[in-house]
TrEMBL record:
Identification of the protein by name: N-acetyltransferase
Cellular component, GO, one term: cytoplasm
Pfam families listed in its UniProt record: Acetyltransf_3
Residue intervals of the N-acetyltransferase domain: 14-169
Xref: Gene3D superfamilies: 3.40.630.30
Species, as recorded: Streptomyces bauhiniae
Organism superkingdom: Bacteria
Length: 172
């Protein structure tokens, strides 16, 4: 996939790789699980919905990625360009992979990629206010609160001016 390094986007504990049609059975299983989608729309998805949205069919408008730990898939991430140097990201981990620092690690790796490879200088996320685990993870990855919209927090990451030419630090 263009703009993704060979071997994926690497964090300290995670690697993000492009989601493809071959990942459909795994993703369809995840997105049909009420616990997995609790903070991702709140309703289980059909295989057809997952196929249409999460296996790379919407590229380049939406880039779909699997989050791996030690070659095992543990989550899903996506990024969406919304302007010339900015966009939004979403990330969801399997419940068994939560609470281990994998979310912030994957987010930092993706931020580094978006900043150093794609030139983004603003990245946003919008976790549900009630999803305290996600809010903490986004803070750990370097995001700050900028507002609210209904039941969602609006958070953004901007590289510090002195670091505009530097990659996102591995630890936040």
């Amino acid at each position: 996939m263009p703009n993704t390094p060979e071997g994926g986007i690497k964090g300290e504990m995670t690697v993000l790789i492009p989601a493809t049609e071959e990942h459909l059975p795994l993703l369809a299983d995840w997105f049909s699980d009420p616990e997995f989608v609790r903070h991702w729309g709140g309703r289980p998805l059909t295989r057809e919905e997952v196929s249409a949205k999460y296996v790379g069919r919407r590229r380049p408008a939406v880039v779909s990625l699997l989050v791996l730990r030690a070659a095992a898939a543990v989550g899903y991430a996506q990024y969406v360009p919304t302007g010339p140097r900015e966009g939004g990201i979403d990330l969801v981990l399997n419940p068994h992979a939560q609470g281990q620092g994998l979310g912030p690690d994957a987010a930092r790796a993706l931020l580094r990629h978006l900043h150093t490879v794609l030139g983004w200088d603003r990245v946003t996320v919008d976790p549900e206010t009630s999803n305290l685990r996600a809010v903490r993870a986004w803070h750990k990855a370097g995001f700050r609160l900028v507002g609210t919209q209904g039941s969602r927090l609006l958070m953004e990451y901007r590289p510090p001016p002195a670091a505009m030419a530097e990659p996102v630090p591995a630890r936040g």
